[in-house]
Amino acid sequence: RKQAAEYSTSSSEEEFESKPSLTHKVKRALRERRKLEKETKQLIKQEELKRLHKAQAIQRQLEELEERQRTLEIFGVKLERELRGEADSGTKDENQMLHDWFELVMEKNKLMRYESELLIIAQQLELEDHQSRLEQKLREKMAIDGKSKGTVCSGPQGQTVP
Questions:
Q1: Residue ranges of the BMERB domain (predicted)?
Q2: What is the pTM of this model?
Q3: Are strands 153-154 and 160-161 parallel, antiparallel or unpaired?
Q4: Which domain does 101 fall in, by range?
Q5: Is 2 contained in some domain?
Q6: 158 in a domain, yes or no?
Q7: How many domains does the structure of the chain reveal?
């Protein structure tokens, strides 16, 4: 009897000792999970800021490009009038004016290609931002599903049991 009593006492002591260590492990796992979630949110925020800065830079470049195109357009109208003889060309000969005209056309084409590239980059940034938001929603839904699955059955001291 004495041995049986000692055995039951020692086994209940072991159970008692294992419960706090299990609780400690659960708490530690929760802390690590929260820390990981916090780090993930910080990384997402940093990526959003990078995309925002890129988008702002692209917007500035597009505005500068638009201004440059307006300037070229004004110069082109003037040059075209000179070529038609509607305006005083001064000392410029026709060959020089044609050369200037073709230079202007090449510059405008170059600016249009650059504008297209900037618009594609801007669209890519929008898609990356959209993807990031979708991934965040997915993580939130998975976290909610994980919590609801984990709380189906609870063990002693409110611990969840899978």
A1: 45-162
A2: 0.65
A3: antiparallel
A4: 29-139
A5: no
A6: no
A7: 1
